[in-house]
Amino acid sequence: MRRSLPAVILDAAADTFAHVGFSAATMDEIALRAHTTKSMLYYHFRSKSELYRRLLEAALGRLTADMEEAGDALDAATAFLDHVAREPHAGFLLRAFFATDADLARDEMASCLGRVLAPIARRLEGEGAQERAFAVLSLMVMPLLRGLLLDEQVDAASIRRQVARYLAGASGDAT
């Protein structure tokens, strides 16, 4: 079955953003990767920002849906790691946490963080749940980003153990 041109364009945009980031990506490059013309790209999407936001919304929706199915904070963190491992354009999602474009950075960073922190924070009890959820996310994102940027293998099991140790220490009980 042949895919629709908007779907092909979105895939090409995700691939481009994952490889070069939002600022360095051009509509010309996205059109080239989608095997279409720039005018057809603009027929379906008003701007590079619209493409980025549509992709980010879809990626966050899939990620947070996986995380919401978790039983506890460690399961939510594991769902995050599993999702990033199987997401074909994980680099796009990880780069969103470190957006550098002035127009997108603040809004997108706040949106990403809030949506990813929420499933973890809801599973943590007591005061400081949001801060502890942020610490858990930091423990996961930094090694993933390092692996992405340096093209290194990421040891998800090691990250999960580190998160489990943090959660056990933060809550005062064994995980």
The average pLDDT score comes to 84
Low-confidence stretches: none
Q: CATH topology, which one? A: Tetracycline Repressor, domain 2
How would you spell out the order of helices and strands? HHHHHHHHH
Which structural class is indicated by helix and strand composition? mainly alpha
Q: In words, what does this structure look like?
A:
By secondary structure, this protein is mostly helical. The chain has one domain (5-171): Tetracycline Repressor, domain 2, CATH 1.10.357. 77% of the residues lie in helices and 0% in strands. It has nine helices and no strands. Helix 1 (5-24) crosses helix 6 (90-96) and helix 5 packs parallel to helix 8 (129-150). The longest helix is centred in the last third of the chain and has 22 residues, at 129-150. The radius of gyration is 18 Å and the shape is elongated. It starts with a helix and ends with a helix. The mean pLDDT is 84.
Topology:
Blueprint: H1 5-24, H2 27-34, H3 38-44, H4 48-68, H5 73-86, H6 90-96, H7 102-121, H8 129-150, H9 156-171
Helix pairs in contact: 1-2, 1-4, 1-6, 4-5, 4-7, 5-7, 5-8, 5-9, 7-8, 8-9
Observed structural traits:
Tetracycline Repressor, domain 2; mainly alpha
Short description:
With 175 residues, the chain is mostly helical. It contains nine helices and no strands.
